[in-house]
Design goal:
241 residues, globular, 3 strands, DNA-binding, homodimer, 3% strand, mainly alpha
DNA sequence: CTGATTTATAAATGATAAAAAGTAAAAGAG
DNA sequence: CTCTTTTACTTTTTATCATTTATAAATCAG
């Protein structure tokens, strides 16, 4: 009963570990990823590490510069804005392509997700610690449900890789949605779900477009705040007397 | 006198060779790509071949199925339709994002390209052999100019990989635009260019959307014809007596 | 004496070759 | 004819080698 052979190749496993490490912030942006170092830490040879770095470089999470080494990607505000612009247009395409494939079961699932998100958004006020991950998971599941119904493999892959890059930047920017943003996001999800249940393609597309655009504006608006915070840290050192 | 050290890594060179080989139809869809075989043919070791296969798999040109080997991707009608749907929405985003960065020099360049395309489209009637590649190059340059002006690295990369997959399918389907399609394409390019010169974002977006959608419909309509042709070939082998 | 430039050494990546593990196909036995 | 076993071929991993780059030290010039 031991088989349970690892279907995935070693390189894929390493890629997954590295991806999670980058996403959780264990590896910081700009940090150099030494191949022998990683090979030692993971107790594997150089080749699977190389393989993993190759696949991660393909999605853009890391950059390989020949013999100058490979580094974790640094995403600046412009990158995030560009990525979210692409995500907006692709998510709009997703809702449009999903509609012909939606079933009544999907309708129920979407309404369930919105209902759960409503509860979780309320619960955030009293039990932030447990409600926040729940909220994040519900949000992901909502978008992934729509995405899966497109049956467009290429669209699914592209949005998945974009999402990787964005949660990466989110963890780095210590992005936390405000209460207002959370409630707005809930309302927008509800609007999208209602339009989808109505099979209202244009309405769902417009709402999804606004949804992602609002998210973008919120994230972008947060970035200078982060810069301010860092500037204050620097300022505290050279405090004016 | 051979300094001219190859900056690019061997793996990248192999990837480029393989990509061109697939795009030109030297390697047919579904064909198995044996790593030792490729290594022998290119006089390199297994590692760069492996590296190249990894990067090509990331863009979707080939599929790697564990120890079952790696094969050239087979694109069916659904794939082409899905890819062109994604391309449509991304090209629309491209025109919108390019407008703020367009210069008067770009206006002149676009008008030059359209003028050249007009001449080439006329010349196709008398000198098809030389005008056809020219037409293809002009078409590519037109889209690439707009794309470059977006200054959106992510958008550029995604559209480039999609374009790879599409010219691949185009060569495989022996896709040849009809005369009507070529003239329509020229008119559409002219309309897009005029809207861009006017800095008319909505107009350019609408025209680009229609442009790619028309291309999609034209390509899709051609596919059954290809299937018929193949059916005839099979029929000639098992000829009824 | 200080600063810059060059050289040498060390470390990391790129590549090769060889071994290890697994899959599919073919051959042989029941 | 079918099931099992073996064989041959494939990818995957490990280990080794070579090439390049970066860093540091030493020497020379100012």
């Amino acid at each position: 009963m031991q088989p349970m052979v690892e279907k995935r190749t070693l390189g894929d496993q390493v890629a997954q570990i590295l991806r999670e490490g980058i996403l959780t912030g264990e590896f910081e942006p700009g940090q150099r990823l030494s191949e022998p170092d990683l090979a030692n830490r993971l107790n594997v040879s150089l080749t699977p590490v190389r393989e993993a770095l190759g696949t991660l470089a393909a999605t853009g999470l890391i950059v390989r510069n020949g013999r100058q080494g490979t580094h974790v990607r640094k995403l600046d505000v412009e990158d995030i804005e560009n990525l979210l612009a692409v995500r907006e247009t692709l998510e709009v395409l997703a809702v449009r392509q999903s509609i012909p494939n939606l079933t009544e079961e999907d309708d129920g699932h979407m309404q369930y997700l919105v209902a759960e998100q409503t509860k979780a958004t309320e619960r955030v006020k009293v039990d932030l610690h447990s409600a926040l991950p729940r909220l994040s998971a519900l949000n992901d599941e909502f978008h992934e449900l729509i995405l899966a119904r497109t049956r467009n493999e290429w669209l699914i892959n592209m949005l998945a890789s974009i999402q990787d890059l964005l949660v990466f930047s989110r963890s780095r920017l210590r992005f936390n949605a405000t209460l207002e943003r959370r409630q707005a996001s809930l309302a927008e999800h509800r609007g999208i779900a209602q339009a989808l249940v109505r099979r209202d393609s244009d309405g769902a597309a417009r709402r999804m477009s606004e949804h992602v655009r609002h998210l973008k504006e919120h994230v972008i608006a947060l970035v200078p705040e982060v810069q301010d915070r860092e500037r204050q840290q620097v300022g505290s050192q050279e405090e004016p007397r």
